[in-house]
Each structure stands twice: as C-alpha cells, then as structure tokens.
Write a structure and sequence with these properties.
mainly alpha
Length: 110
C-alpha cells in the first residue's frame, strides 16, 4: 500500500503582511541602536533620534507609495479586504506620529 503525500505546502506570508511587520520593526531597532550607541558616546541616543527622523523623511513616503501600489494590485485581483488595508495603514500612522515627534523635538517650541 502506497502512502499518499499531501502536495499542499504551508502558505507563506506575502509582502502584504510582511511589509507592515518590517515597517513596525524599524522602531524597536532604532531604540536598540540608541541604547547601543549611548554606551560610548553620551550624545549617541540623540544622534540616533535625529538620524531616524531624517530616515523617516524618505521611508514614510516610500512606504505610502508601496502600500498604495499593493492595494491597487489587490483591488485588481479582487483580494482586497478591510483588515489587510487597516493593517497596512497602522505603521503609516505610527511613522507620521514619530516623524512629527522627531521634527518638533517632542513638541518643544524651540
């Protein structure tokens, strides 16, 4: 008697799910980098804070464009759902909040 093997492979997560996860991973990485850079330099955390804000000036519009293109592709395929759209918008809201916080130095009037 032959064994019947299943040809079904586990479903891999596609870029629609991984992109927001990678986007949200940016912040813990920056906090870790700030902690590591502050070991040798007292201004290390400040440099990471400022440079992460400058990186967000490029990353935020890039994320918005990529997310828009993915949404258009899902709409054309008929696979767009409100859950995945909201899941992809969440990091954008966090990015914009962080960008405003960095650009205004935490709301400082200076």
């Amino acid at each position: 008697m032959k064994k019947v093997e299943s040809n079904a492979k586990p479903k891999k997560k596609d870029v629609n799910v991984l992109l927001p996860c990678w986007a949200l991973a940016y912040f813990p990485i920056m906090f870790l980098a700030g902690a590591l850079f502050s070991i040798g330099d007292p201004f290390g955390k400040f440099y990471v804070f400022v440079f992460s804000g400058m990186a967000l000036l490029v990353l935020t519009p890039a994320y918005a464009v990529i997310t828009s293109l993915l949404t258009i592709k899902r709409i054309k395929n008929g696979t767009n759902t409100i859950k995945i759209t909201l899941f992809q918008l969440c990091p954008l809201i966090v990015y914009i909040f962080w960008l405003v916080t960095v650009l205004t130095f935490g709301g400082s009037p200076a």
